[in-house]
Design brief:
Elements: H1 29-33, E1 43-46, H2 52-60, E2 64-69, H3 72-82, H4 87-99, E3 101-102, E4 105-106, H5 107-113, E5 116-118, E6 125-127, E7 130-134, E8 142-146, E9 153-157, H6 160-170, H7 173-182, H8 192-199, H9 204-217, H10 224-240, E10 262-266, H11 268-281, E11 288-290, E12 300-305, H12 308-318, E13 321-327, H13 333-347, H14 349-352, H15 357-360, H16 366-383, E14 389-394, H17 399-411, E15 414-420, E16 428-434, H18 447-461, E17 465-466, H19 467-480, H20 491-508, E18 512-515, E19 525-528, H21 538-552, E20 556-557, H22 558-565, H23 577-587, E21 588-591, E22 594-597, H24 603-623, E23 627-631, E24 637-640, E25 643-646, E26 660-665, E27 668-675, H25 681-687, E28 695-699, H26 704-713, H27 715-721, E29 725-728, H28 729-737, H29 743-750
Parallel strand pairs: 1-2, 1-13, 2-12, 11-12, 13-14, 27-28, 28-29
Antiparallel strand pairs: 3-4, 5-6, 7-8, 7-10, 8-9, 14-16, 15-16, 17-19, 18-19, 20-22, 21-22, 23-26, 24-25, 26-27
């Protein structure tokens, strides 16, 4: 397998509508991959339709993208993002809704009155931004508002007026609840119970708000474009109105329909207003047609509303697919169930019918996911020519999800070409190719092969890795051996066997070391016992690579640094952003968007400072009546009374990027100073031949936070550093200026500024 570098991108400035359910992907990734594999104007296929952003990016780049979508909400997101109505239609539709009548008052005034609350400071009635609830209670306990009259804002307890208003709305809840599920299923439908259960995740007030607005839609005299615009704003209110918004800590990306112990009830009128700007800010201007309408060679999107298996034979005859792109879908019961509800509310029962299965199913396990993915891959296999590339992005990765995807693809005949991973918070980038039509020889999974693959990755990494990384290393070995699933196995059995094989390889092989506060294999970090004194760490190599790049390329933006760095560390070795930023903040300064080395960290300046620091060490040693001897990377003999001193065996420490100084008392080594201009702590420990209790590692103060970061991510390094003393340049400068210095006060000063203090200075990204 060819280990390709991770393709970096940019986080979108605005995540867009329904972002908590849409895959969190960086922009620019597919734009970097596509030109290397397909000419502009070519036909691409997204078999999942899981990420509108991914499809839009390819279409804007000049590709024709055929997308299969069976979720009506995802389809609507894609259509609206590609070609939204003009801003004037959004504003006109909103105005039509606001001025519609509800009895004798305007609908907008009536809906806003649902959220009125008195300001605690001035008493004026204002709109609450949200109300706060505890699970199972019949009234809110808190409210959040901002009073424009007196400036009072924040979280406050509810008043009796707030409680009475909530209970008054709840008194008529039965009628509105009944109307809401009748838009999804009929009274006689067997799926009615599932619709009722899903609607239980809406409180009476938001449900009243939504049914009132939706029931008024047909009475408004709207053009098709304005109806689309209003539907788009209502869709955001549908999402904002459920009980999945935890408070104060929020489940940012809910997967199950479970009500948090405390949650936020949003003001849905404010959410409607927010929808106007949100849709316009994230919109494109891309040709978007329904299958089988034609789209121009200059690029666009063709949407097939249905399943891939129904399209496969038509596409094979009509469209030459050059490449496949797609975000691999992971189970999301919350989004899929709510999508069925929202589709019924916005477009009626007919829109729900093809998607009603989402209402019935309450749990999706990884065997279900693998089975569904395998079916899609199998249809793709029949549709695509031999060797067609498939660039897949696996968002929110976890071991079982990755196992599911690789097993499904391999069983369908797709060959794994590359797998690149950064962290468990970033999408995994996978490249498959459509394999041979010949029947494959399925091999038996071999535990030794898995252990060897994991161990090789850890040695190459030179430091501990997350369980996801070592799991991926084992999976890659099994995938290459075609040993993930036999023909006789069901996916459930195959996934369990793979998981057990990898975990048993870790726990039964004495070479592996587990750093974790828990007993579970999939927690904490894994390492190899051989790493303790033999191999240079990934973080040390990344530090050297970044500094080298900035020396040659001053005033580089962050993306240029990543573009240079990632090819040096491909596949599973991709350094995380925090590692890169830790190095940059240690060595460089930012001018606008560009990074350059600080003046004191330019190579010539650091070399001069190393000379200065070494001279300071000698000066302090002489003041303390020690015999000092400066050594470089050569072997010298020294006679003192009856002792011959061989520097190669303990008299000299040759620094990584300078020289060394050692202080000798009574013909015995008292201190050894290892002077660094870097934070290559692991290399320093590996290269010093002296006892830890004798050795002081001297680093610039600007490296302390970087050294602390490395120790934090590597428990083995942290344990070894505890036996060494780390001294910062600034302490030596201080000691030179101290008028009275004794050996005792020197020892006290050395331990006064430990490396642990620098952890608080670490900048989190």
């Amino acid at each position: 397998m060819d280990h390709q570098p991770y393709i970096t991108g940019l986080s979108p400035a605005d995540p867009g509508p329904l972002s908590r359910f849409i895959p969190p992907l960086e922009e620019g990734v597919v734009s970097a991959w596509l030109p290397l594999h397909a000419a502009a104007g070519s036909w691409l296929l997204d078999p999942f339709g899981f990420s509108p952003r991914l499809v839009l990016e390819a279409a804007r780049l000049g590709y024709r993208v055929l997308v299969t979508v069976n979720n009506p909400i995802t389809r609507f997101l894609l259509e609206m993002s590609a070609k939204p109505p003009p801003e004037s239609d959004f504003k006109a539709a909103f105005a039509e809704l606001e001025t519609a009548k509800k009895g004798d008052e305007r609908l907008g005034i009536h809906l806003q009155s649902l959220y009125l609350t008195p300001c605690e400071k001035c008493g004026k009635e204002i709109q609450a931004q949200s109300f706060l609830w505890r699970k199972g209670e019949d009234a809110p306990y808190g409210r959040i508002y901002e009073c424009k009259e007196c400036g009072d804002s924040g979280e406050r307890l509810t008043t009796q007026q707030d409680v009475d208003r909530a209970k008054k709305i709840a008194a008529t809840d039965g009628l509105h609840r009944s109307r809401s599920f009748e838009k999804v299923v009929s009274l006689k439908d067997d799926d009615r119970i599932y619709a009722e259960e899903a609607i239980e995740h809406y409180l009476p007030r938001p449900l009243y708000f939504l049914t009132t607005v939706i029931n008024r839609l047909d009475g408004l005299n709207l053009t098709p474009a304005r109806r689309r615009a209003l539907n788009a704003m209502i869709l955001l209110a549908c999402d904002a109105g459920n009980t999945l918004w935890g408070y104060p800590s929020e489940r940012l990306r809910p997967k199950q329909l479970t009500i948090p112990n405390q949650f936020r009830e949003h003001n849905l009128w404010l959410q409607l207003e927010r929808g106007l700007s949100l849709w316009l800010e994230t919109a494109s201007d891309v040709v978007c047609e329904a299958w089988p309408q034609k789209i121009p060679e200059s690029g666009g999107i063709c949407i097939y509303e249905g399943r891939l298996k129904d399209l496969a034979h038509e596409v094979k005859k009509e469209i030459p697919i050059v490449a496949v792109i797609g975000a691999v879908p992971r189970p999301n019961q919350a989004f899929w169930t709510l999508s069925a509800l929202w589709a019924g509310w916005l477009w009626g029962r007919e829109a729900v019918e093809p998607y009603k299965l989402a209402l019935r199913r309450r749990r999706y396990d990884w065997a279900w996911n693998a089975t569904a993915l395998n079916a899609a891959f199998a249809h793709l296999f029949e549709l695509l020519p031999l060797g067609t590339p498939f660039f897949g992005l696996l968002p929110e990765p976890e071991p079982s999800f990755l196992t599911s995807a690789l097993t499904a693809a391999s069983a369908a005949g797709f060959d794994l070409q590359s797998l690149a991973m950064r962290t468990e918070h970033d999408p995994i980038q996978i490249l498959w190719k459509r394999g041979e039509h010949l029947k494959r020889e399925v091999n038996k999974a071999n535990a030794d092969d898995v252990s060897t693959a994991i161990h090789s990755h850890l040695i190459e990494r030179g430091e501990p890795a997350s369980y996801l990384h070592v799991h991926a290393a084992g999976l890659i070995a099994l995938t290459e051996a075609h040993a993930l699933k036999s023909k006789e196995q069901e996916f459930d059995e195959a996934l369990r066997a793979t998981l057990a094989l990898i975990q048993n390889a870790l726990t039964s092989d004495e070479r592996f070391v587990h750093y974790s506060t828990g007993e579970n294999v999939d927690t904490g970090l894994w390492s190899s016992a051989e790493l303790i004194r033999q191999y240079e760490s990934l973080s040390d190599r990344v530090e050297v690579a970044i500094v080298t790049f900035l020396q040659k390329n001053p005033n580089s933006i962050y993306l240029e640094i990543e573009d240079d760095l990632y090819p040096l560390f491909p596949g599973l070795l991709t350094p995380p952003k925090m590692m890169i930023y830790s190095v940059l903040n240690s060595y460089a300064e930012k001018d606008g968007a560009a990074w350059k080395l600080r003046p004191e960290d330019v190579a010539t300046a650091r070399r001069n400072e190393l000379i200065t620091i070494s001279a300071m060490i000698e000066a302090v040693g002489k003041r303390l009546n020690y015999v000092t001897r400066k050594e470089e990377k050569n072997i010298l003999w020294m006679e003192n009374d009856q002792i011959k001193y061989n520097s190669a065996q303990g008299g000299v420490l040759a620094a990584v990027d300078g020289g060394g100084s050692n202080i000798i008392e009574n013909d015995q080594i008292k201190y050894v100073f290892y002077v660094l201009a870097s934070a290559l702590m692991g290399r320093a420990i590996l290269e010093t031949p002296h006892l830890p209790e004798q050795t002081l590692i001297v680093i610039p103060g600007g490296r302390a936070a970087l050294a602390a970061y490395k120790a934090q991510r590597d428990p083995a390094l942290a344990a070894r550093l505890k036996n060494y003393r780390v001294v910062k340049y600034r302490l030596l400068r201080t000691l030179v200026e101290v008028p009275v210095l004794t050996r005792e006060t020197f020892e006290e000063q050395v331990v006064s500024d430990p490396l642990e203090k620098s952890k608080a200075q670490m900048i989190m990204f």
